[in-house]
C-alpha cells in the first residue's frame, strides 16, 4: 500500500482544503452571529434566519429566480436536445458551420455582449411589433434559455457521439421510422445527458447576474441582483444566512446525486460480474 | 397479373432469389463498390470476404438500405428494392456490435421489430418465445443486455434479426466481437440455427476461416470488385487470380514467362526458383506470356537427401521453422533469396526415420507437376 503521504504532500493537501473551505465555513459561522456587524462576533443567534424569512423582498426574489431557473432549464433542454441532435447526427447541410458556431456563441461570448445585444433586440421588437411590452420574466427567460441551451446542446451532442450509431441503424432496420427512433431509442439513451443538462441550466440561470441585469425590468429582481445590490450597501448578516441555506441545499443535492449514481454503478458492475461468472461456468 | 405470371415463370427457371445487378457506390471521388454483379440462391449462406476497406460493408449497407447505390439495381424475390427505405425492406441485419438496445430487456429487444409491424400482442409473445427457444435464451428473457456475456448477446442479436422472418438476413462480421475459442464453437452453432430456420443469408467477414466454415459460397472482394465467386473448396483449390490465392490460405508464388507451351504441358521459367516449373496440363495463353504459379505449402515436399536437378526442384537452406503442433512450416531460403514455405506433418520425419532438418541445413523443395495453379492476373 502506497497510501502514506509524505509530510509535504499532506501539507499541500491541508492548505488546499483550507483555501477552498475557510471562506464557506466562516460564512456559515457568521450567519449565526448576534452582532449586526459582519466582522465582529457578538454571540450565537439565529435571528438573521428569522429576519431573512420575514424579508419579503428577498423571498420574492428567491421565488422569481426559482421560477425563471425551472422555466429556462425546461426550454433549454427541449431546444438544446434538438440542436445537439442536429449537430451530432445530420450530415453537412448549407449553413451547418454557421449553425454550430451560433450554437456555441452564447458560451464563449462575454455575457455583457449577449445581454446588451438581447436588450437592443427586445427594444427594437417592442418599437416595431409591441412585443414584449415590458422587460421582466419573459425577457429574462428568453435570455437564460439562449445561454443554457448552448450548454445542453454541447452535453447532448457529446453523448450522442459517444453512443453506438448502429443502435439507431438497428432500430431502422427493424422497421422503425426516424421520428419513432428518436423518441424510443435515441432519447432514452441520452436521458442522463439531458438530466445533467437540466441541472446545469438550473444552476446557470440561478447564478446569472450580468445577462439578467440587461433584461430585467422594474418589477422583476432576481436573487443574485438582490444580493448584489445589498452587498453594495454594506454587508448584511441576512445575506450570510441566505448563503448558508444555499450551501446546505446544494450540498445535500450533490451528495444525494453522487450516492444515487454510485449505487447505480455498483449494481451494474455486480450484474456484469454475475453474467461473466455464469458464462464462464457454462463454457 | 402478367407480372406475377412472369415472376412465376422466372422462378421456375431457377432465377436467383437475390440479384445484385451492376451496383456502384461512390463517395465523392472514391468508388467504394465498383460494378458488383451477384446472384444469390434461396436458402444459401453466402460470405463476402475481403480485407477492411474493400467495399464489402458498403455493399451490405446498400442491401440493408442504409446507403443508396449510385447506380445499379437490387432485386429481391422479384421485387426491385433499390430505392426502398431500410424500414420498408423485408431484410434484417445482425450488426457487428450486436446493437442491442441497452435500455430494453432481451424479450423487448426481440419484440421491437414485431411491434413496428403492429403485430397483435399475443402473436408477438408467441414469436418472442419461439425465438428465445431457438437460441436457447428463454431463461434470460428479462435480463438487460449488459447482464449477458458476449456469446449470449450474439444469440439475442441473432434472435432479434430473425424474429421478423426476413427474406434475407445480413450478418456483419457475425462473430468478430467474440474471442477466438468461443468463435470457433459458435460458428457451427450459428450455421445450424440458420439452416434450421431456412433463411437466405449474406455475411460479411474478413476472417477466411469463418467464411470457409460457415458459407456455402464465398465471394472474394478487393477494391470494390468481386474477384471470384465459388464454394470454399473451389476458391481454395482453383483461385483465379493472385489476390485470391494469397488471401485464402498461404501460398508460394512464382512469376515468370511461359517458355514451353505444349497442348498437354507447359513450362514456366522462374528466375527466383532457379529452374523451371513444369505443369502437366495445357493453359490457354501464348508462349512468352507472363504468368504466376501458385503452390500451396502443403503441396511442397521437403527432402534432406539431394534431389536430381530439374524442373520443380530447388535447393535451399532452412531459414525458419514454425512449429504448429500437428505440423510445422519450414521456411526454405533459395539461392535467389526467395523463401519457399513447406508444410510438413509432425510425424513425417519419425515415420521415415529421418532426423528432422534444423536451422541452416541444406534441403530440397519439390512438388508434383499437377500441383501448381497457373494464374494470369
UniProtKB/TrEMBL annotation, chain A:
Gene3D superfamilies given in the database record: MetI-like (1.10.3720.10)
Topological category with respect to the lipid bilayer: Multi-pass membrane protein
Source species of the chain: Vogesella aquatica
Keyword Transmembrane assigned: yes
Name of the protein in its database record: ABC transporter permease subunit
Domain of life per record: Bacteria
Family: Belongs to the binding-protein-dependent transport system permease family. CysTW subfamily.
ABC transmembrane type-1 domain mapped to chain residues: 62-261
Membrane-spanning segments: 12-32, 68-88, 100-125, 137-160, 181-206, 239-260
Pfam (any one): BPD_transp_1
Entry keyword set: Cell membrane, Membrane, Transmembrane, Transmembrane helix, Transport
Subcellular location: Cell membrane
UniProtKB/TrEMBL annotation, chain B:
UniProt xrefs under SMART domains: AAA
Enzyme class, first EC level, given as a word: translocase
Pfam families xref list: ABC_tran, TOBE_2
PROSITE patterns: ABC_TRANSPORTER_1 (PS00211), ABC_TRANSPORTER_2 (PS50893)
UniProt catalytic activity: ATP + H2O + polyamine-[polyamine-binding protein]Side 1 = ADP + phosphate + polyamineSide 2 + [polyamine-binding protein]Side 1
Keyword check for Cell membrane: yes
UniProt GO MF annotations: ATP binding
EC number assigned by the record: 7.6.2.11
Keywords carried by this UniProt record: ATP-binding, Cell inner membrane, Cell membrane, Membrane, Nucleotide-binding, Translocase, Transport
Keyword set includes Cell membrane: yes
Domain ABC transporter residues, every copy: 18-248
Purpose of the protein: Part of the ABC transporter complex PotABCD involved in spermidine/putrescine import. Responsible for energy coupling to the transport system.
Stated family: Belongs to the ABC transporter superfamily. Spermidine/putrescine importer (TC 3.A.1.11.1) family.
Self-association state and partner proteins as the record states: The complex is composed of two ATP-binding proteins (PotA), two transmembrane proteins (PotB and PotC) and a solute-binding protein (PotD).
The protein, known as: Spermidine/putrescine import ATP-binding protein PotA
Species per Swiss-Prot/TrEMBL record: Vogesella aquatica
Gene name per UniProt: potA
